Amino acid sequence: MKQPLNKLLVISSLILTLSACGGGDDGEENSNNNSNYVPPNTSTVSGQFYNSINTGKYFSTEDFPSYEQYGQNSRHCYQSYNDYYFESEKTMVFGNPDLPESDFKQAATWVENNLTSALTSMGISEQEFFDAKTSIRLGRLKEIRNWLYQKGYPSFSYPAEFDNWTSQQQNDWATKTTKNLTTDEVVNLTENDPYTQYKTESDYKLEDKIYVCLHENTQPYGWGEGTAIGITIGAESIVVPDDINKLIQHELIHTIQHALSADFDGFKLPRWFSEGQAVYLSGMSVAKKTNHNEYDPTLVVYFSDEYGNSSLAYEHYGLAYQYIKDSNGQPSIVTMMKNMGALSHDYSIQLNSELKENHNYVEIFNAQIKQQNGNSLKVSEYRDNYHSLMTTYAN
Predict the structure, then answer these.
(1) What pLDDT is stored for residue 21 in this prediction?
(2) String of b and e for 173-187 (b: at least 16 CB within 10 Å)?
């Protein structure tokens, strides 16, 4: 094992990014260099190191892995370090075998110590989370959906009217049917599919674990990322951000968001909502109600929409979410997210929509979300009247 890389202990307050996150702190970064890194003496969870060649469990198995499933910062885990991992009760931590073993154990400990808090703040149980979290790799689900749409499974029972449907109706049926398949049905379809890239069950079935990828970036920006299968975080021997437990909870909340509201058509929540929820529920800093004029969070639908100081932006994402939570309650928001996940994407609706947001999000938000006074609240209305609503909220 090679000598550990220098450890940078980041002591400034940072907003660290992920695929769902994506900003960064604009302030100067203060750090201490330590070329003689010594693993912490704190206890870590028990587990075992494995080689995937012996277990058949890999970080990814696709010919062309998608960042939608694995995240933007996990390329090295599916390109170079796909087959070495530490497994604990609730995690599988992949990374460079040359990293200290303590990096893998610490990552597993961070996740296991913060998973319950993340789930509690979201208002769902661990069982609900793993039931909602996909047990089949998204690439395989996409294959099945596409083959169902093309009537590529002759043995499958298709509706009698299928051939008379529009292309969108056929796609909608194929999408919903794929979402409702049991694991056994997926196994049966795969065993009889001569064209699939997945050859064994372990190729396309996921464990009921949080998959963790350790990256080795030496900068704090992009340290954390929540994905459909777990989280990507920095190796503990290289960079450790401030407020580590809040940050891990933040990333796990993004993973929960994927489980509840996303599918193989992608992530459906706008950036301000997904980040605001993760900021607020993880206990990170939220802007004061009286300071709402500092930023317009609901304008930020995608990462490319973000402007100004990212730390300020994140605080205001948190405030925008706080209003929704206080006006509706966390259980109602969870229901909204589940209802989003149940819908299939209609490309024609999205193409003709006047709004940038995912049309599934718009439909469910408009139908279910309320203002503080109990009146209905539309996506466009929250954006157009944000500051007037906040003024009332602050009083």
Answers:
(1) 62
(2) bbbebbbebeeeebe
Percent of the chain with pLDDT over 70: 89
What is the rounded CA–CA span in Å between residue 272 and residue 301?
Answer: 6
Evaluate if pTM is beyond 0.85.
Answer: yes
- The Cα 284–Cα 276 span in angstroms is 10
Burial of 195 (0-12, 13-18, 19+ CB in 10 A): exposed
What strands lie across the sheet with 224-226, from one edge to the other? Answer: 48-51, 84-87, 91-94, 210-215, 230-234, 224-226
Pairing of strands 48-51, 31-34: unpaired
Token duo for residue 381: 């209305």
Tokens of 300: 């930020």
- For residue 285, give every residue at least 6 positions away whose Cβ sits within 8 Å of its Cβ, in sequence order, or none: 13, 279, 314, 315, 318
Query: If 0-12 CB within 10 Å is exposed, 13-18 middle and 19+ buried, where does residue 304 land?
Result: exposed
pLDDT at position 106 is 98
* 367-374 long-range Cβ contacts below 8 angstroms, 24+ apart: 368/328, 368/332, 368/335, 368/336, 368/339, 369/324, 369/327, 369/328, 369/332, 369/336, 370/327, 370/328, 371/327, 372/323, 372/326, 372/327
Place of tokens 């149940």: 342
8 A C-beta contact, residue 389 and residue 372: yes
d(CA 361, CA 337): 8
The neighbouring-strand residues paired with 33 are: 8
* Tens of pLDDT, residues 260-303: 999 888 899 999 999 999 999 999 999 999 999 999 999 999 99
- SS3 (DSSP) at 210: strand
